[in-house]
Design a protein that fits this description.
52% of the residues lie in helices and 8% in strands. The N and C termini lie far apart (44 Å). It contains eight helices and three strands; from the N terminus they run αβββααααααα. The protein is globular and about 70 Å long.
């Protein structure tokens, strides 16, 4: 998972992908550039195959994601495709691009990744925006409290 904004995703060109399809150069809000990484092995394999096919058929300056006419896939069209997929798979609530972004941020934070690194990966100008994702799940909070059960540790001595 990369945590890209939908507009960033649909604005990617084939040439923005590097490192055997493991790194993506992103132009975010305010025309700020950053690099995101495709870390999941299965996603890397599938994405590399897709990217190589786009390189072969479209060239480096082509849009990475296109509609059936070969034009840039718009954020609205991407949302519509995702909603159709959600309905066909009977996923409720429906999948949204931002839900993927939110999940990526939350999972990184829950795995203990430094919030400043998460901020950089998400392209947030302000750390305060990234802190929205620090609201941990009840399960994570319960696990942390159980792991830090100081009274039980004192009783053990």
């Amino acid at each position: 998972m990369t945590g890209l904004r939908i507009g960033e995703l649909t604005s990617l060109r084939v040439s923005d992908v590097t490192g055997a399809a493991t790194q993506i150069r992103v132009r975010g809000k305010g025309d700020r550039e950053r690099t995101v990484y495709v870390a999941n092995d299965r996603l890397q394999t599938d994405f590399r195959r897709f990217w190589e096919d786009r390189c072969d058929t479209a060239g480096s300056q082509a849009w990475l994601f296109t509609n059936t006419m070969g034009d840039r896939l718009t954020p609205q069209a991407f949302r519509k495709r995702l909603r159709t997929l959600s309905k066909s798979l009977r996923i409720e609530p429906h999948l949204t691009p931002h839900r993927f972004r939110h999940s990526a941020a939350t999972l990184l934070i829950e795995e203990g990744v430094d919030i400043r690194l998460v901020q950089r990966l998400l392209g947030h100008a302000s750390i305060a925006t990234t802190e929205i994702y620090t609201r941990v799940s009840d399960n994570s909070l319960s696990s942390a409290v159980s792991a830090a059960d100081t009274l039980a540790k004192v009783d053990a001595y």
